[in-house]
């Protein structure tokens, strides 16, 4: 039987990474003689990838847009060295991944975080062994909300039924465009009211994800046999 595929977003879904992203942004701004931005402000800038994070910081401060490449490189170098100082999986993530693995799911990650820090974080938090595929923000030509990452992972992992688990409006749009049901984690970094999102179900603790995923799989149309 085709194995079902469960694809997870990373920041604000599997891991609470905003504290380290905020700290690295604060060091970048201090290095440029600027005041750090508030934690909630930086958290609201996460989800569209690091280049967009830097654009949003430039727009909110006196940083020079012409020096974006330099800020981006400085951020990535610093964040790469400190990405798991304050970052942990959300409660229940490891138990949920263990259960899904026992159930026979193929597990994967589709994040807008660049691939190098993504792989380093998964390794440092001992999560890497769970995932048969990882797509970062710079892995393919287009990142979320482009559906290419979900489509690529589905093809790589055997074309089984897919559920995408994420926290944000970016993830909801990605799932919609890929034609995949979306399970919304309500404790992440979403910037818009949930009523503005398309999602098949939501959960607030990872202990509640497994029944939701089985419900969504049971609701999926059975593919026609040729
Ligand atoms: O914006 C980012 O860098 C990553 O965000 P994501 O893991 O939620 O896709
Ligand atoms: Mg996210």
Automatic annotation (TrEMBL):
Write the Enzyme Commission number(s) for this entry.
3.1.3.18
Catalyses: 2-phosphoglycolate + H2O = glycolate + phosphate
From the UniProt record, which GO molecular function terms apply? Answer: metal ion binding; phosphoglycolate phosphatase activity
A Pfam family annotated for this chain is: HAD_2
Q: In which pathway does it act?
A: Organic acid metabolism; glycolate biosynthesis; glycolate from 2-phosphoglycolate: step 1/1
Which regions span the lipid bilayer? none
Q: Which cofactor is essential here?
A: Mg(2+)
Per the Swiss-Prot or TrEMBL record, the active site comprises: 9 (nucleophile)
What is an annotated GO biological process for this record, any one? carbohydrate metabolic process
Cellular component annotations (GO), alphabetically ordered = cytosol
Stored Gene3D superfamilies = HAD superfamily/HAD-like, Putative phosphatase, domain 2
The main enzyme category here is hydrolase
Q: Which UniProt keywords apply?
A: Carbohydrate metabolism, Hydrolase, Magnesium, Metal-binding
Q: Which family does it belong to?
A: Belongs to the HAD-like hydrolase superfamily. CbbY/CbbZ/Gph/YieH family.
Functionally, this protein is described as follows:
Specifically catalyzes the dephosphorylation of 2-phosphoglycolate. Is involved in the dissimilation of the intracellular 2-phosphoglycolate formed during the DNA repair of 3'-phosphoglycolate ends, a major class of DNA lesions induced by oxidative stress.
Q: What is this protein called?
A: Phosphoglycolate phosphatase
Q: Which organism is it from?
A: Roseibium aquae
* Organism ancestry: Bacteria, Pseudomonadati, Pseudomonadota, Alphaproteobacteria, Hyphomicrobiales
């Amino acid at each position: 039987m085709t194995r079902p595929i469960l694809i997870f977003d990373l920041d604000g879904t599997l891991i609470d990474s905003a504290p380290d992203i905020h700290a690295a942004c604060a060091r970048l701004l201090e290095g440029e003689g600027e005041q750090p931005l508030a934690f909630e402000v930086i958290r609201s800038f996460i989800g569209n990838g690091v280049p967009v994070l830097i654009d949003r910081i430039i727009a909110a401060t006196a940083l020079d847009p012409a020096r974006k490449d330099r800020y981006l490189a400085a951020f990535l170098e610093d964040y790469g060295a400190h990405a798991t100082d304050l970052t942990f999986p959300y409660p229940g993530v490891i138990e949920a991944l263990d259960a899904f693995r026992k159930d026979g799911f193929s597990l994967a990650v589709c994040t807008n975080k660049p691939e190098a820090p993504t792989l380093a974080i998964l390794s440092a938090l001992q999560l890497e062994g769970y995932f048969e595929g990882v797509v970062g923000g710079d892995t393919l030509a287009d990142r979320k909300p482009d559906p290419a990452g979900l489509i690529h992972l589905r093809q790589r992992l055997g074309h089984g039924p897919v559920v995408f688990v994420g926290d944000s409006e970016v993830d909801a749009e990605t799932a919609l465009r890929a034609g995949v049901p979306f399970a919304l984690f309500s404790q992440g970094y979403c910037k818009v009211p949930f009523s503005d999102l398309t999602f098949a179900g939501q959960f607030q603790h990872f202990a509640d994800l497994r029944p939701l995923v089985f419900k969504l799989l049971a609701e999926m149309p059975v593919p026609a046999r040729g």
